[in-house]
Amino acid sequence: MIWAKLILHGLVAQFSFSQTTWTGGPGHLGPTPLWGDTFYAETCITWNEFPTLIRLTGVIENLPEHMIDPTIGGWDNDPDVGDLDQDGDLDVIATDESDPDIVAWYENDGAGNFTKHIIDPDIYSVDEAFMVDLDRDGDNDLVVASDPRSGKDLIWYENDGNENFVGHLIDPNIGGAPEGEGVYVDDMDGDGDLDIVASWLRGGLFWYENNGAQVFTKRTIWTSATAISAWNPWVADFDADGDMDIVLTTSTALYLFVNDGGNPLGFTRRTIHGVGTYGLWCKDIDRDGDLDMVTTGREYNRGLYWYENDGVGNFTLHTVDMTMLKPMGVHAVDVDPDGDVDFVVADQDGQRIYFYDNQGNMTFIRRTLASNRHFFGMFMGDLDNDGDVDVLVRAGTQIGKEGLLWYETRLWYDTPGVLISSILNSGVPTIWDNAYFGANVPPPTRVEIWVRASNDPVSILSEPWGGPITVSGSSMNGLLTQSTRYFQYRIVMSTTDRWVSPTVDSVAFTGHLDPNWEDVAEGRNIAEPRVVFGPRSVEVYLPTAGTVSVYDATGRRVFTGEGTRLTYASATRGIYTVVAEMGDKTITRSGVLLGGNE
């Protein structure tokens, strides 16, 4: 087998292969040209809760309490969490209708310590807030529902990029007395801008169509013929037909409003569950690829329910618990984490935060996480950047404030944890150079990278692992077989303090073509392989069907294809490398594409 020596301006062509997410899960041995979001196997590694993070699995042991703001009260508002100032940690948004009526955000220093900033100091009976980049200018704004007596029943606060906010009135009166209640923001009509869905407490649901410049047209979806309480909306494509539907909790039923399309949009109301519901969270609870729901029954029936989606918007009711006193806020997340979805519920009158531990078969064991406060609104997120989800909660009643606080999830971690990648096919005989990884490795934890390579995708599994690599950027020379196309890595994470886990957010491996290989002669007719660079595209002609890969100057694979004649065009000027494989022979060529349009 003859290979090519490839020189770009005197430098051997460099390649880089990386992985920054593992949420696709295990079971993918490969070989594969790109790692994507999958891997081969793991032991004691949690990979599916955070999109760009892996860490050790663990068991919840205790939750220390941290007070954020003792002046916050209320009785039914949920706090919100997001990176408002885009500095890499989760900030907190809270509204308070217990006097003074305010909208505030709490700036996280990255370790769960918060600084309060007032956005609106006077907004009567303010309810829900939704964080989103409404005007698509790159920073996070807020959409807030309140009371018509405030004169700003529905309002959005525009962020100037430095967390200075200007209020813009959307609707001074959503439905009349009493107030607006819940808000959700999404592109309802599929025109590329963000619209707003808002519920009216007395029994109504409306959406506000954005014209693209944050000028909104109000459209009525539904109003109740009798006085009921309409609470929390959630927008998603629940029936998998390509448009956005709405789920709404109310004091009499859980409703699904099916989007029928049209201009303006029409909706069909369906009853999912004919009992009062309040708290709502939507997630793929049973991990079957569609969106399920979990709700609480408040004082209406004291229930906790989850609703199994069949994939097209038909839901099967499952009752989890009927023994709480007044279940309010709810969140669905893998708390433990053990690879399944658990529930966390705030029981206001029971003065408990409950953790419903999924046993892996959709049966749940209830455990108490916190007690002795009138908990109601809640949210889950990693507030201290330690790789697990913490509990953000508000507490109080109509006669007393009990504060905005968070409970630090502490896990007793399993150790060691191991993740093994899929087998990578680099496409060419590669000299493997350096290993890089992004990780948080607090003492006394440890992260090790091990590597192996082979020219056969089967025998690589028998190759010994080379390592450990504990410093990012370390050379792989001497750790594995060189001039090989198949490559695999292994991450080993460990700790000697079972309360602390390392985390890994990325791995990357560089290499270059083996300069001691030479390619087959390039032919001058269609009976022989030919690579032709034009001004903006490259044509590859092969005498028999083969595989063609194109790499840019950084070593990133930008094209793969199979056949006898393939074309790659690029709008970006630069040096490109073509690797064409035909059975046991390979031809490589490099050239310049000018980019731009023809």
Strand coverage percent: over 45%
Low-confidence stretches: 1-12, 519-526
Helix content: under 10%
**What would you report as the Rg, rounded to the nearest angstrom?**
28 Å
Q: How many strand units? A: 48
Largest sheet: 11 strands, antiparallel
Query: What spatial form do the alpha-carbon principal axes imply?
Result: globular
| Head-to-tail CA distance between termini | 38 Å
- Determine the mean pLDDT: 90
Look at the helices and sheets and give the structural class.
mainly beta
Number of helices: 1
What is this structure's SSE topology?
Layout (H helix, E strand, L loop, with lengths): L6 E2 L2 E2 L1 E6 L21 E3 L1 E2 L7 E3 L1 E5 L2 E5 L10 E3 L8 E6 L5 E7 L5 E7 L8 E4 L8 E5 L8 E6 L5 E7 L8 E7 L8 E6 L3 E7 L5 E8 L6 E7 L8 E6 L3 E8 L4 E8 L6 E4 L8 E5 L1 H4 L2 E6 L5 E7 L5 E7 L8 E6 L4 E7 L5 E8 L3 E7 L8 E8 L2 E8 L2 E4 L3 E4 L3 E17 L4 E10 L11 E4 L4 E2 L8 E12 L7 E11 L16 E4 L3 E15 L5 E13 L4 E9 L2 E9 L5
Antiparallel strand pairs: 1-2, 3-43, 4-37, 5-6, 6-43, 7-36, 8-35, 9-10, 10-11, 11-12, 13-14, 14-15, 15-16, 17-18, 18-19, 19-20, 21-22, 22-23, 23-24, 25-26, 26-27, 27-28, 29-30, 30-31, 31-32, 33-34, 34-35, 37-42, 38-41, 38-42, 38-43, 39-40, 39-42, 44-45, 45-46, 45-47, 47-48
